[in-house]
């Protein structure tokens, strides 16, 4: 049921959308526009002289081997986070979808991590993985496996991936569960009668029918890994050791806030912005092609 | 192709028992229609045969093999669902071939069998489409096709026609019957529609509150209903029920509405004055100047026939179906032909047949 309200005159409708527009312009377009503008400027560290340098910031950026290293880190990080968060969430959702005693409680517990602030979550992971005070960290070391994510880059990457993925599992779980529950039961029963065992049924019927959900979540997870994991990384490793866990968003922060190179930081922000726009476009383009049943 | 035997099937959901011990023996190639109002347990019974529900008691035997403990996949059955349950992401051909693919048949063999089934159902042109591009009737055919290609021992139909419009339903009904006869596959068909039941079934199982109230051929169910529930369920308009008492040493019934009618088929056992329920179908009632005065309340002219609703002296409701036109109001004298009476015990509602000659 769509109802169209027709206003007389233009003042009232303009007034009605004004607050929304104002907020968007003030808090989104303005800073974004400034970032784009800053990307073409170069400032000295004290902000006294500013000069227009055109695309020089971008040229420097892509000529910087450390930036390319950061890009590689980001791709490994995003792929790891998405893969783990999606796989674990799907597994949990499939198990929670079965008729089990206490399913409601089980589902609520699984949703909880999403409500935990990134910094708090990071502290929990420190208590787990810290080589001296962490439960798991100490156990690993005592078992003869040298584990110190503060020294070993690979281990550090593993820890931030785990921490970031853990936070995203809840979100994915909710969507996977909803997706599973919208699959008509009779379709699965038909497959069972056709002779399909549970595992085969899952891969030939359930998983394909979940693919719109999976695709949506993949994009959401990539966006999350790219842009919303600053808190986890900052609290756990601060990009270290030796930049091993420095992602694009963390590098933009370091260059802008720590190194006070606003032009460089802005150029990185613009690159990130383009990535978001691309991911969002992909999502809008393909999310329409849902399976209808 | 196989026989199906159900022995004492019980099913409880929590504390509620919905099936109270159903027995049924289906012969090879027979089409059995399970009919009943919603909530009578008919779908549950079908799902137990399919293996989608576990019975709380009793045994399911298909082709002499006890399958009670087996998964649906191991029972070699095919089922057509009410909402068709086609796989939305597969083409029609893939839908139909899914079961064969699982059995590991060679691709050429699958294509051949799918093609044959499609030809049989007239859906060859649809093989590359997806279910959402099909109409309700076409989806129904694909669901049938998916069942046919597997060449199962048993077809199960769970109200497959109830999502179709009236015209298509009549057409598909005839088609299902033709197909079933041609393939000779033992079938169970669940419906709440008595017309479907009467036209499709070799035999009917009339379910009532978790019991099989009657298992018999459609005509037998119509002519000799086993109890007042079956009598009221099959036939339209429903059979009239009148209160009466056994009279003249079992040879007659004294109706509460007045007259004493002698049974045409012999005396009933029982004590004088035992309460009875007398059933008589609306189409068996005839106007007769010497009959009971029926005060008309509502007249429904249907063209070729007229349905009259009225009350007898004493206030009992009576429905009469007459051929052609009829008076619109007033009082119509109605005769109750003795040979058309159905006699039931008032308490249990069970049919009361004449005592065999001693």
CATH architecture of the largest domain in chain B: 3-Layer(aba) Sandwich
**Euclidean distance between termini CA atoms of chain B:** 45 Å
**Protein structure class of chain A:** mainly alpha
CA radius of gyration of chain B is 24 Å
Question: Looking at CATH, which topology of chain A would you report?
Answer: MetI-like fold
Query: Class by helix and strand content of chain B?
Result: alpha+beta
- CATH superfamily of the largest domain in chain B, by name, is P-loop containing nucleotide triphosphate hydrolases
Attribute tags:
heterodimer; A: mainly alpha; MetI-like fold; 72% helix; B: 358 residues; Rossmann fold; OB fold (Dihydrolipoamide Acetyltransferase, E2P); 2 domains; 5-stranded antiparallel β-sheet; 8 helices; 24% helix; elongated; cell membrane (chain A); sn-glycerol-3-phosphate transport system permease protein UgpA (chain A)
Structure description:
The complex is a heterodimer of chains A (293) and B (358). Chain A is mainly alpha-helical and 293 residues long. Chain A contains twelve helices and two strands. Chain A has a two-stranded antiparallel sheet with strand order 1-2. In chain A, β1 and β2 (50-52) form a beta hairpin. In chain A, α3 runs antiparallel to α9. The longest helix of chain A has 33 residues, at 65-97. Chain A is globular and about 75 Å long. In chain A, 30% of the residues are buried. With 358 residues, chain B is of the alpha+beta class. Chain B folds into two domains: 4-225, P-loop containing nucleotide triphosphate hydrolases (Rossmann fold, 3-Layer(aba) Sandwich), CATH 3.40.50; 236-345, OB fold (Dihydrolipoamide Acetyltransferase, E2P), CATH 2.40.50. Chain B has a six-stranded mixed beta sheet, sandwiched between helices. Chain B has a five-stranded antiparallel beta sheet with strand order 13-12-11-14-19. In chain B, α2 crosses α3 (107-121) and α2 (92-102) packs parallel to α4 (136-149). The model of chain B has no long low-confidence stretch (mean pLDDT 88). At the A-B interface, α8 and α9 of A face β6 and α2 of B. Chain B: It comes from Roseicella frigidaeris. Chain B: One of its GO terms (cellular component) is ATP-binding cassette (ABC) transporter complex, substrate-binding subunit-containing. Chain B: One of its GO terms (molecular function) is ATP binding. Chain B: Keywords: ATP-binding, Cell inner membrane, Cell membrane, Membrane, Nucleotide-binding, Sugar transport, Translocase, Transport.
